[in-house]
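Journal club side-thread
Mid-discussion, someone asked how the predicted structure for our own chain would compare to the paper's figures. Pasting it here so we can look after the session.
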Amino acid sequence: MVSLEVEEEGEEYEITAKEAPKELEEGGQNTIDELTEINLGSKETPRPTFISASLPDDMKERVTKLLREYIDCFAWSYHEMPGLDPR
């Protein structure tokens, strides 16, 4: 266990965390999830994005619903990103 004291605006907190597994420390474990493509748009105007394939089905549905709810926060083309040089 690792303990860390954090002070935030005059309040002090103690955080206790487990140490990382040795496999992670030594670089022996793959930490990149397999991805599943989801379309946040329509057939005519696809908006592909990716989520972790290891998420349980109910969580995939919740994440997809959340992404669709905030779809206007994403830029899908250069004309939606003013000030960015497309080159």
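Post-session note: Residues 2-80 form one domain.
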